[in-house]
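Anyone up for a design puzzle?
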């Protein structure tokens, strides 16, 4: 099944606007969250088919939030792409170990992101 509904979790308004604009123009329905609490509220409202997760956020970081979501039976089937400026190999490996399906570094390459989303469904 092709992905339609995407949740973006990022504390940067600029990133949220950029990614939302890109995804909406490509036909996706987008919800946003600026922190872990916000993200769980959005998940409860409507289950997305993909989550784009920033790492560096106040409070619970993206690694912790990814681990929490992937260990929750209600949401464990939702693929998560880490979408972060943390570009070290150790960060990528750690993100994948927390349950992320893929790891994309910022600035996000639009065609790379679209290809990875398309590959899911």
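Challenge accepted. My sequence:
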């Amino acid at each position: 099944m092709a992905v339609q509904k995407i949740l973006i979790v990022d504390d940067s308004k600029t990133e949220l606007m950029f990614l939302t604009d890109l995804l909406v123009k490509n036909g996706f329905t987008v919800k946003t969250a600026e922190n872990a609490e916000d993200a769980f509220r959005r998940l409860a409202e409507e289950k997305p088919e993909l989550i784009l997760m920033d790492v560096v956020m106040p409070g619970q970081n993206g690694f912790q939030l990814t681990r929490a979501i992937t260990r929750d039976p209600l949401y464990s089937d939702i693929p998560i792409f880490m979408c972060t400026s943390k570009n070290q190999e150790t960060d990528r490996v750690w993100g994948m170990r927390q349950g992320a399906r893929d790891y994309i570094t910022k600035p996000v390459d639009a065609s790379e992101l679209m290809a990875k989303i398309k590959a899911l469904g």
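A detail worth pointing out: The mean pLDDT is 96.
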